[in-house]
Sequence to fold (152 residues):
Amino acid sequence: MLCRLFCAAVIVGLAANFAGAQDPTKVAPQHYKLHFENEQVQVLDVHYGPHEKSVMHEHPAGVVVNITAGHLRFTDANGKVQEVYSLAGETRWFSRAKHTVENIGDEPFNAVYIGLKGKLTTAAGDSTRDDPVSAEELTTILAEYAQVGAKP
Fold:
C-alpha cells in the first residue's frame, strides 16, 4: 500500500513537472527571464551567449524585438532547422512555436519577446489560417484591451 502511494505521488510529480516543462523561464532560465506579465501579454528578456543552445521549449504567438544582432539556429519539435540573421532594432512576428534555439554567432544575442495571451493568443494561434491575425483584427483586439485598461 505504501509503495502504491509513493509511486502515485512520483507519477503525479513527474506529470506536473512535464506539463510545465515547456515554459522557457522554467526550462531555460539562463536564457529567458520574466520581465512583465498580465492577462494580455508575457514579456521575456532573452539572452544567449555566443554558441549557447537552449533545451526544447514553447512560446505563444508574439513579437520579438532584437536588441542586438545575431545569427541563430531554430530547430522545431519535428527537427526542421531554420537559420536566422537578426538585425539590432528589428522586430519579427512569430507564430506559436516549440523549438530549441542556438546562437551560432560569436557575439551575445539579446532580445525582448512579447508573447500574446488570452483572446490575442486565440486569434493569433489559429493554425488553420494563413495569416494568424489580420491587422484589422489585431487593431480591434488591442483597442478593446486599451479601453478596458483605461477604465477606472
